[in-house]
Structure formats: C-alpha cells, structure tokens
Amino acid sequence: MVKKKCIYCGNVRALEEEHIKPKSKGGTTTAYACKRCNRSKSDDTYLAWFRRLKKNRDSLWYKIKKYQKGKRGKIAETARKVANE
Predict the structure, then answer these.
(1) pTM
(2) Is residue 73 domain-resident?
(3) Is the residue at 32 inside a domain?
(4) 71 part of a folded domain
(5) What is the rounded CA–CA span in Å between residue 59 and residue 75?
(6) What pLDDT, in 10s, does the model give residues 49-71?
(7) Confidence class for position 1, pLDDT limits 50, 70, 90
(8) What is the pLDDT of residue 7?
(9) pLDDT digits over 30-56, tens only?
(10) Which residue from 82, 48, 52 is spatially nearest to 65, judged by alpha carbons?
(11) Which residue has the higher pLDDT, 1 or 26?
(12) Burial class of residue 2, CB neighbours in 10 A (0-12, 13-18, 19+)
C-alpha cells in the first residue's frame, strides 16, 4: 500500500485535495497537499509561492526544499531553481 503524502513537503497528516495550478487560474489537476501547504499556497502558482516562502525565510520553505531534494518532476525542479536564485 502506498502511503499518501503532501506533494510539496511530504507530510502524511491532514491531507487535502490541492489544485497544483490554482483553480482560479484554470487548474484542474489535483494532488494531495497537507493543510499547511494548501492554505499557505492559496491561489499562487507553486513558483510564486516558493519565492514568497524563501523571501520571508519561512520554515515551510526549508521543509519543502529538503523534501524535494533528489526528487524528479516539475515541482522539484522549480524548488531547486528557487533555491539557487
């Protein structure tokens, strides 16, 4: 059995359905995100959200960056890009 995890930080608790591209911007693809990530992201794209978290030195950014390290895919690539900016 595969355990469901937050697509951003890897948390396994308090998961909600998340629109990766915000629904307000035409997004339809969904995944699981923890309540903290989902509420923090709001209607930002994940690129804008990562940049905001990094700029504000939010502890959530460090958790996401650590979880995405070594992963593959657009979210992980974007996290690395923002980390290197």
Answers:
(1) 0.88
(2) yes
(3) yes
(4) yes
(5) 18
(6) 999 999 999 999 999 999 999 99
(7) low
(8) 96
(9) 899 999 999 999 999 999 999 999 999
(10) 82
(11) 26
(12) exposed
Domain count, the chain: 1
> Which ranges in the chain belong to alpha helices (H)?
35-41, 46-55, 59-68, 74-83
Residue 3 is assigned to a structural domain of this protein: no
Give me 81's structure tokens: 């890009």
Contact 23, 17 (CB under 8 A): no
CA distance 64 to 78: 11
- Give the pLDDT score at 70: 92
Residues near 18 by Cβ (< 8 Å), separated by ≥ 6?
Answer: 7, 30, 31, 32, 33, 37, 38, 41
Do 8 and 63 meet the contact criterion of CB atoms below 8 Å apart?
Answer: no
Nearest to 45 by CA among 5, 81, 72: 81
SS3 state of residue 47:
helix
